[in-house]
From TrEMBL:
It comes from the Bacteria. This is ABC transporter substrate-binding protein. InterPro entries: ABC_transpt-TYRBP-like.
Amino acid sequence: MSLGTGHARTLSVLVLSQLSEQLDRPMMAALSRELAPLERQGHHLVLERGELDPQASDAHTLLQVEQWLARRHWDLVVSTTMSPAVKVRQLDRAIPVLFRSADDPRSYCLVHSLRRPGTPTTGFTSALPGWGKMAEALHLAYPNIRGLALLVDGTEEAADPDCPGVAMPPCRPGPIPSDELPQALGSQQDDAGLRLAAHRAGLPLRYVRVCKAQDFARLSDWLHPGDGVLAPMSYLSYTHRQQLVPALQSLGLPVVYDSRYLLLAGGLMAVKGSTESPEQPRGIELARRILEGADPSRIPVQRPEGFEFIINLRAAQAMGLVPSKVALRTADQLWR
């Protein structure tokens, strides 16, 4: 509903987050600033933050989200990661949802396309088709690697009758058989770019699937000496990053991630979407547009404008892996 002049309304915004209050503080401040003009127009703004347990099961998280949604009529739900947005959509198909996530919303059937979502769901995703760039950066930093291995998250989302997608094969941890790759990788990932980068570097490419956090202890059985490892952001890698990063680093292999969260957990290096300003987190400016009556199903999902290459020198020193001089000159950031 469009906000007309002279018709003051109560506008209720719920922020659902699995992040800590400290991590959410810049985003909450930016959201308050963005919505302040609506208050100056005479509207009453209700802004609440609902903290969700990041370690809870899917069923318990769904229950938590359901309880928050039942508290009042919400004009907009803001989700700081993809999981709460998915849960909201399971419970309510109509409420406008604005997300900020490192995941591709198409992978969760939240939108039909990034250019035109087609559902009352939009926002910002830092996901870019960057597997090829990750492989190039890994080979640049460690030119002596003898192969590439991509870690694939084999966990399966609950079936959505409105968006069945591709039937996932049974999740068997370890090397992925070639006939299962199309289903295991999905259609939105950058496999073509990865294969091209591996071909150009003359490196064999393998795919290793993990199904649960306990599989991290078996990575030494599936990764070879001389491998360079690509560990993209996924449900498992994010939720269990404090277990995954040490498990990989104990193998002494160079690993490239695509998320700052994995670097903060001690990861070696990352190729990720360009960093946004903490004062102006991307996507938040859409909140006022939606509350003013814009149709979120017609608002394109925002993405980063490019990539940045980060090397964690502390991790490199601890692992005894010295990046090449050309990589050190090329990196956008060196964490010391």
